[in-house]
Design goal:
- This protein is α+β, with helices and mostly antiparallel strands.
- It is built from ten helices and ten strands.
- The strands form three sheets. It has a four-stranded antiparallel sheet with strand order 1-10-5-6, with helices on both faces. A four-stranded antiparallel sheet has the order 2-3-8-9, with no helix packed on it.
- β5 and β6 form a beta hairpin.
- α4 packs antiparallel against α5 and α5 runs antiparallel to α6.
- The radius of gyration is 20 Å and the shape is globular.
- About 30% of the residues are buried.
Length: about 250
């Protein structure tokens, strides 16, 4: 049986605040915003065990038998309400349906275990997004040593080769999808997925990638400067430019 290594790689929130654990209030103009915080009151009152990372790791029961396992970076967003309950749990980046269900069910168990976010001291509903690496290996050490950046870069390179040199968009998408499964915040990969989807006529999927790219603060001009000539040779480039031009 494979060993599973579960790591938090990023925790963030939208609506002006970074949702890292134990961060000071974030100031924006004259509004003081404090992100929601996991308290785990029903789980453990001990300070060094009441992190969301610990809670998920202790409750993550993943069958990693050969043939039925998957790894990558799971990204989930949800809303922390003013009473500490959760709602609107959504998968942003999926490792697999099994991992989706596991993480969703664990988060549902944390209902009312949250201190709500605040605007100027007043509790408000606030969106939070978490990212968790699921690594597999024959031993804990081998799982720990799996470098998701290297794996994602390899898939990205292969995807670019399929897109630019072989003109095989469908095969390119498979590699870019694998790359984003490992590195869901990689803006270059999101851009390439948008380009591939619009190239094969899937405007709705392309728009979703464009929106995600924008939300992460991606700069398409920098990407296009580096890949200018190759991008312009892709049939869907002009339509993708139109999607970026819309608000």
């Amino acid at each position: 049986m494979k060993t599973i290594k579960l790591l938090f790689v990023c925790m963030l929130a939208t609506l002006f605040a970074y949702a890292q654990e134990n961060v000071p209030p974030y100031m924006m103009t004259d509004v003081e915003v404090t992100p929601p915080k996991f308290t785990a009151v029903k789980y453990s009152p001990v300070d060094n065990t009441n992190s969301l990372k610990t809670y998920i790791a202790n409750n993550f029961k993943y069958d990693a038998d050969f043939g039925g396992s998957a790894e990558g970076t799971e990204v989930v967003k949800f809303t922390v309400n003013t009473d500490g309950s959760l709602s609107d749990i959504q998968i942003v980046n999926s490792v697999s349906p099994t991992v989706d269900n596991l993480i969703t069910s664990i988060l549902e168990e944390t209902d009312y275990m949250w201190m709500p976010g605040k605007n100027n001291g007043t509790p408000v509903a606030m969106e939070k997004e978490i990212a968790i690496q699921v690594k597999l290996g024959m031993t804990e050490s081998s799982a720990e040593n799996r470098d998701f950046t290297v794996i994602a870069q390899d898939h990205f390179t292969k995807g670019a080769e399929k897109l630019f040199f072989d003109q095989k968009t469908k095969k390119a998408i498979k590699h870019f999808e694998s790359a984003i499964r490992y590195r869901p915040y990689d803006q270059g990969t999101l851009y390439m997925l948008a380009l591939c989807e619009v190239d094969r006529g899937n405007r709705e999927a392309a728009q979703a990638y464009v929106d995600r790219f924008r939300k992460l603060g991606g700069d398409k001009n920098i990407l296009e400067e580096e890949l200018a000539q190759k991008l312009k040779n892709v049939e869907g480039y002009e339509l993708l430019s139109e999607l970026f031009a819309t608000k």
